[in-house]
Design a protein that fits this description.
Blueprint (H helix, E strand, L loop, with lengths): L1 H4 L7 H13 L2 H8 L3 H15 L4 E4 L2 E4 L1 H25 L5 E7 L8 H11 L3 E7 L2 H9 L5 E6 L8 E8 L1 E5 L7 H10 L10 E6 L4 H13 L3 E7 L2 H9 L5 E3 L8 E3 L12 E8 L6 H20 L1 H4 L1
Parallel strand pairs: 3-4, 3-5, 8-9
Antiparallel strand pairs: 1-2, 5-12, 6-12, 7-10, 7-11
Protein name: HTH-type transcriptional regulator YofA
Pfam families: HTH_1 (PF00126), LysR_substrate (PF03466)
Family: Belongs to the LysR transcriptional regulatory family.
Length: 320
């Protein structure tokens, strides 16, 4: 048959890596530097890739280039192929890896990172067992100090923790409201819309949706509002982040979080349009119980770092 006689395209992983790295870094000159190649060599790889694809992958956009629809499609496949290649390599290197890893995460990362990371790890290292603990920062910090955890991915609040840590990302705190603005508390929202920045002088208190005390983020938010002279009230509190998102989505008030892992039914609010104070950034840290980790712990450590950085790179408009 005609289809069977056609030669199959075999994409070169090395070329796909250059393609993907250039998009991630926003420049193929930077990609060439990162990959230890000349810019002309990377340019030749991209021409080869377009020839293999049989269609244009880039189009002019001002002084630069942007991906075509075909380029976007190929980029998604390139990332999957490179990820699978890395996973296969890890599986071969650690096929006989055995042991136990105890991982701590805050609730922000449970749905965003945990399924993909644990899936990749389990396929590569089926003999290693993982115990995951999803909890708030204070509990994770205590468990880490007691050596009940090997790794903990937490938001840094400036409190003293184990020295074996690494800052993974620094992300802005944002005011978070429901996807539909008209779902917000009517009296407060209508006044903000009507008065804009001058609404900070209003006596109508801002309804807050925050985690139960003790919570360092709660203290940051309240301090920022008090400094700005903005009245506030606790409209909803809970120990569960999922419950906060439900209350925020229902319009009970505004919450505060980084853009990492926001569910689809809430959104970041433009604070300047309604006179809310600016908020600081938070550091996302990966802490380790000990500097020299055993092989299973070191492997999960590397996968977590990679997954977080990929997530941050994939959402630049929200995270920076």
């Amino acid at each position: 048959m005609k289809g069977e006689s056609m030669s199959q395209v075999m994409f070169d992983l090395d070329v796909l890596r250059s393609f993907s790295t250039g998009i991630a870094l926003g420049s193929y000159a930077r990609a060439a530097d990162r990959l230890g190649r000349s810019t002309s060599a990377v340019s030749a790889q991209l021409k080869k890739l377009e020839a293999q694809a049989g269609t244009a992958l880039f189009r002019k956009a001002g002084r630069g280039l942007e991906l075509t629809d075909a380029g976007e499609t190929l980029l998604a496949y390139a990332r999957r192929m490179l990820e699978l290649n890395a996973e296969a390599g890890a599986a071969m290197r650690g096929a006989d890896l055995e042991g136990w890893v105890r991982l701590g995460l805050q609730e922000d990362f449970g749905e965003t990172l945990l399924p993909a990371v644990l899936g990749r790890f389990a396929r590569a290292h089926p003999k290693v067992r993982i115990e995951a603990c999803v909890a708030r920062s204070a509990e994770l910090r205590e468990r880490l100090e007691l050596r009940q955890l090997d790794l903990a991915l937490v938001w840094d609040t400036g409190e003293q923790m184990t020295p074996h840590g690494e800052r993974v990302a620094r992300l802005p705190l944002q005011w978070i409201g429901p996807r539909a603005p008209d779902a917000l508390d009517a009296a407060w929202w209508k006044e903000r819309e009507r008065r804009g920045n001058s609404a900070r002088k209003s006596k109508e208190p801002l309804p807050l949706v925050l985690l139960d005390a003790p919570c360092p983020l709660r203290e940051i938010v309240v301090a920022a509002l008090d400094r700005a002279g903005t009245p506030w009230r606790h409209a909803f509190t809970s120990a569960s982040l999922a419950a906060l998102w439900a209350a925020t989505s229902a319009g009970l008030g505004l919450s505060v979080r980084t853009p990492f892992g926001l569910p689809a039914h809430v959104r970041a609010i433009d604070r300047t349009a309604i006179g809310l104070p600016a908020l600081p950034q938070m550091s996302l840290m990966l802490y380790r119980a000990q500097a020299a980790a055993e092989a299973p712990v070191a492997r999960l450590d590397a996968l977590l770092l990679e997954a977080v950085r990929e997530h941050v790179q994939a959402e630049p408009a929200q995270l920076h």
